[in-house]
Amino acid sequence: MNTMNWLLKREHWEHKGGFFWAPIVVSGIIVLISIGSMLFATVMGRDGGFHIGGNSDVSLSQALASVSQADKLEIAQGIAVGYPAIAMPVMVTLGFVVFFYALGCLYDERKDRSILFWKSLPISDRDTVVAKALTALVVGPLIAIAVSLALALLVTFTFMLLAAFHGMNLFGAVLGNGNFYLVILQILSFIPIYVLWALPTVGYLMFVSSWAKTKPFLWAVGVPVLGGVILSWINLLSGSPFELDKYWEIIVGRGLGSAFPGTWLGYVSEQNAHITPDNALGFLLSNTYSLLATANLWIGVAIGLAFLAAAVKMRRYRDEG
Fold it and tell me: Where do the TM regions start and end (predicted)?
């Protein structure tokens, strides 16, 4: 266990730029745009510019003061259940970080010959590969979620402060809403599904990373995409002898794109339900966990584990770039 903890720390130290600073930079951009937009609206609406009833031109303070109590509660409910949505670009960034980390983590150590140093230590190839997989599948998402929540809370509290400054106090209604806290647990509940869903992509990329002597991106992405293009070209010339929809969906889409959070939503069977702001995230979580009953998920898990086992074997015998 101490060895695994040390290996995870090593991965974090070596790849802090991707797993920590990339979400921070994206969050900083979102904060600047969001808060800048709110301040701009505050300044522009200070002396007028808002129309109520289609006739009057009122200031921002007057517009907010005219909001009814029922509307305030509805706004507060929307904030309580939806405030993390502003951090979606951070989760997209996570997908790219995980993809390129998995693609380079075993190749780079052969390229710079650092593998010779790590192999001189009493650390097995299995532990090294497992630590890298855990970094991509668990540590990275946890860091991204933490940064996302910090971003969402900062923007949300800034919005509520500006609203309070203009006479609409939302703090009590938002902070007294249980969904404001429950949504954090619901977001964390997506991690187990992400681990299982992303496993085939991460396993495949790590295998290519352990095997490729040069240009792992071309091998990992270029070969399946080029294969699809060639088959499509053959179809065009010979009258469509191949059914390629599943190829692009499973080999390219599922095989290469599963590192991106939320890509499983296209594979879940939606239940008939009336979606409201109150139950939207719970409905999404319920549909997400329905994947546990699908062969798609578990076949992908088996393939991902097989690729990781192959990556362990390849690392054992490929010492040099």
Answer: 20-41, 86-108, 129-160, 180-205, 217-236, 289-312
